[in-house]
Amino acid sequence: MNKTKQTILETALLLFNSDGLSVVTLRTIANKMKISQGNLNYHFKKRDDIIEALYFELVEHINKSMEDLKLQDSKNNLKTLADILHTMMTIFYEYRFFFLDFVQIMRGNKKIEKHYTILSKQREEQFSVLFKLLVKNRLMRNEALQDEYNYLYKRFSILGNFWISEAEIQNSKLTKKMIATYAVILFQAIYPYLTLEGQKEYNSINFECFNLLLRGV
């Protein structure tokens, strides 16, 4: 990707995050960059093209991070799950406009909607594998209800997709420091499904590491 195109995406992301999708136009982005709209249109003919490019950047970052976490910890224990959730939420925050305007984007962009539907199924399968490994390692109990762990993933998905909206509504200003708090809130959803051994491991996890990660320690 050439430098101008990358700068357009970085500027658009900054504006979408700070001002919201509804007020940022191609002209807004061009003015911020101090270039003509014609120059911008040479790289992106419409705003949806920029939104799509940022969406696929987001997906690429998450896929790369999940691969890295998988390579770092082949045991697939609870700490791995905590790291996955926290990493995903950190990336979501960096592209927070997408989740603040989630429904609007899905209704207006069929390409993103179609890809997201397929991606959601892939994520469900990935989490299903992780849950099965946790059961095998006796950290999670066996399912007591039909589709119980499929629905657990759904809860993770719903909370993950909409925690930024909740944080925006409940606080006067959305900040990166909130990631650690909401990561713990999300991770606690698994606690009722843990065995005694799993609860012991859960309680051994130092959640202060979430804050340390944010500070780059």
Distance between the termini: 31 Å
Strand proportion, as a percent range, falls in: under 5%
Unreliable runs = none
- Which shape, going by the Cα principal axes? elongated
What radius of gyration results from the CA coordinates? Answer: 19 Å
Provide key terms for this protein.
217 residues, 0% strand
Protein model, in words:
By secondary structure, this protein is mostly helical. The chain contains 12 helices and no strands. It starts with a helix and ends with a helix.
Q: What does this entry show, briefly?
A:
Helix content is 75%, strand content 0%. By secondary structure, it is mostly helical.
Topology record:
Layout: H1 3-19, H2 26-33, H3 37-43, H4 47-72, H5 78-94, H6 96-100, H7 102-108, H8 110-136, H9 148-170, H10 178-187, H11 196-204, H12 208-214
